[in-house]
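In practice, a research group might receive sequence data for several interacting partners and want a quick structural hypothesis before committing to experiments. The following worked case mirrors that situation: the sequences arrive first, and a predicted assembly follows.
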Amino acid sequence: MNKKLMYSEEHLKYLRKEKKDKVFVLVCQIAILVVFIALWELLGYFGVINTFIMSSPSRIINTIAELYASGDLWYHTAITLYETVLGFAIATILGTLIAILLWWSEKLRRILDPYIVVLNSLPKIALGPIVIIWVGAGIQSIVTICFLILIVVTIISMLNAFRECDKDKILLMKSMGANTLQILWKLVLPSSIPQFISVLKINVGLSWVGTIMGEYLVSSAGLGYLIVYGSQVFQLDLVMASTLILCVLASVMYLLVALLEKRVLKSRH
Amino acid sequence: MQPYLKLSNICLNYHSKQGETMALKNVNIDVAKQEFVAIVGPSGCGKTTILSIIAGILKPSSGTITLDGKPLATNTREIGYMFQRDHLFGWRTIQKNVELGLEISKDKSPESKQIVQDLLKKYGLTDFANQYPHQLSGGMRQRVALIRTLVLRPKILLLDEPFGALDYQTRQTVIDDVSDIIRNEKITSILVTHDINEAVCMADKIIVLSHRPATVRNVVMVDLDKTVSPSKRKKDKRFTELLNFVWKELDSE
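A structural hypothesis for the assembly, expressed as tokens:
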């Protein structure tokens, strides 16, 4: 049966308006992109802006096509993606585990509190040179820098989430004879899932920052490397193309987390 | 006759950096088997503290508690606890929520499973078993919270302002509902409340506490017809007399 038959005229009007608004927003979003690209291309074409410095959409596409043809596209993208995902995964998992440990032992948390505060306020990129010397130049130091940028934020956010868990719910579990492991497993972890997902979202963004910063400092391959290399040889097309690929990758990774969020939160209700 | 639950000379001191506060001073409470006792007192006098001590969550500074003649063991299934908010876990179905206590005590016996099914059926929750808490009304959720504690067959049920979060209209219905279930299941219960109405219409016995440090001021026996629902008891002339009496007791400080 058609559901529409059951709705009143007023409700149909409301639905039509909702749909109209949605279409309007989408059209505007696409329009902004199209106008931006077209304007960039045209201004370059008519010589208003210098395409040698500003590049242009067509030159970016050509550069990407060249990179694809030479096989460099996959090579550099794969390396950056590998570093980012590795740094992201290690930091998120280890950070959550450390947060669990600090939640478990109030004493340990109090002892380590000042160190966490200091580490949190330190700009982690300052540790870059030390990292390179200690773990060696290469992928391992990039992953380490990415890891360092994420780990403290992860620990602090997850610990806050655990500590925000309703005291009465903990009391309820204790009155049923639950031990700490059961409280953690059946109450604290499941109730922190929404915060865990927002930590994932933050970490997705930060992991790209970490990796690209790492690649700026020390690398012989990767999108960050292409950007630095492109700017040094004054090949702005390469810089722009790499940035565009980066933009797409970061968005896809964020969308994946958003998708996960939608699924998890749906099954919780 | 030996009372079922006996609190003798319970004292409790709170320690903080600012100093030591005496919360409870020589509290003596006797509860008979299957009795419904209500504890009333001025706000902040330590009513909830008494429940925490009975539940074994707080250790008294001095004094003894015995259940059925034996010292009370902590962290067991013997004590059920019901809070102001239902505290159902949003990520668990009603059935899973009700089974929480069994999971904690790793009780997988078919008898316990059967108790869950029976209680769900008896109190009209079978149809909701696979739904999530947010799909139920406030009153229903409080009923689920009660069933969750009853599944463990507690010897004592502690109720800490269990109707405080409900709106006025729902409250009376839920009071009748909870009272009915408790009388039905013959559970010894202790209710803490600041609402004297609630105490008089539900309890067999009311314990009036003093200001901090709390001690028992008076014990009022409620001689209302226990075979009818609390809302019907409220219509009794005696109800108003008792209400006024308890009011005066609380007020006379």
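Before designing any experiment, note the following. The two ends of chain B are 33 Å apart (CA to CA). Residues 160 and 170 of chain B are 17 Å apart (CA to CA).
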